[in-house]
Amino acid sequence: MVHDIDTVLDTPTGDGVDPGEFIRAAMRWHFDRRTGSPFWLARARTLDFDPLTDVKGVDDLALFPNVCDELRDVRVEDLVPRGYGDKPDVCGFFESGGTTGRPKRVVLLRDWFLKSQEWLSSSLDAHGVPRGVNWLTLLPSGPHMAGYAYPRLARDRGGHAFPIDMDPRWVKQLIASGRAEDARAYAGHLLEQARYLLRSQEVGVLAVTPPVLERIAVDDELTELVRKKVKAIVWAGAHMDASTRDLLGGEVFPGLALIGFFGSTMMLHSCSPRVTEDAGESVFDPPAPFITFRVVDPDSRKQVDHGARGRVVVNHVSRSFLLPNNLDRDEATRVRGPRRQVGDSLADVTPVQVFDGEAVIEGVY
Length: 365
What we know:
The protein is an alpha/beta fold. The protein contains ten helices and 16 strands. The longest helix is centred in the middle third of the chain and has 21 residues, at 180-200.
C-alpha cells in the first residue's frame, strides 16, 4: 500500500500541476527514510547538496549526478520505494536494449504504468489510431518494456495482440561482429512470421521498429497485406528521418496513420509527436513535470538556444521512480514547448554515433 503523503504526485498527466510543488513533493518522497528507495537513500549520503532543501524545481534536477551507469549492477529490489509497502505492485524489472553497453535495469510499478498507458492511448486517439482492432507487434520482448507495454495497450483499446518475438541484442551482436548476412537472415525470419499472421488474421494496427518497417516496405506481398488490412502504423525504438517518414506515409502506405514514438527504458515512457498540420520534423512534447527534457551542449552541459541542436537530457520524476539528469544517447533540436510546459520539446531526434566510448548500433531496434 502506498504511504499516503504528497498526493500531488498522483496528479494525472496533463492536469497542469505546479512544477515546483510537484518536484518538492517528489524530493520529500524519494529522500524520506520511510518512503524512499534503498538505492536513493544510500546515494543521498554521497551527494554534495541536500535534495530536500536545494531542489525546488525542474531546473534544480541538474544538481544530480547522472546515475544511469549504476543501474547496470544495482540490486533491482533496491529501486522500489519503501513507501509502497511490503507487497509493491511491480509490473516487472526491465532492461535497456544494450545499444550503449551492458543493459541497465529499471522497475516499472503499476501506478506509473497505468498513467503512462493512459497518456499513450490518448495520444493515439488524437492521431486517429482506431480502437477495437487487433495489433501485430514486431517489438523486443523478454526483458524489454516495449514487448510488455504495447500488447497491453492493444487490449486496453479493445483489441487483441499478436506479438512476434524480437531479440535486438543478438542482431546488434551480429552487426558488431561483421555478420551482416546473418543479421539480414534474422530480419527475414521476423518478416516471415509477420507474413503468416497478416495472411491469416485481422490486424488493424502494426506496431514496429523503423528498420523492420523499411524491410516490410520493400517486400511486395507484405506491403500489399499492410495496405489491405492495416489502418495505422505505430513505430518506435529507433530513428526515422523525415524523408523516410514522408516516403512511407505518402507513397508506400498512403492513407494509413503513421505515428512515431520517442522513448526509452530509462525514460519509462514514450512520447508521441505533436498533433500538427506541419509536414516537417516530428516534435515531441513530454508529459511534464513527470518527464522533462533539456537540450544541452554535450561538453559544457549548458542549454543550447532554441533551434540549435544538442544532446538530450531526460528527467523522470514520479512516485514510483526517480532518474534525473540522464544524458541520453540521442541528440535533437531544441524546440519551445506548449504554453505552460516546463522544459524543452524536441525535434529531429537522432542517435549519436558513439556513446560512452561504445559504437551505437540500432540494428532492428
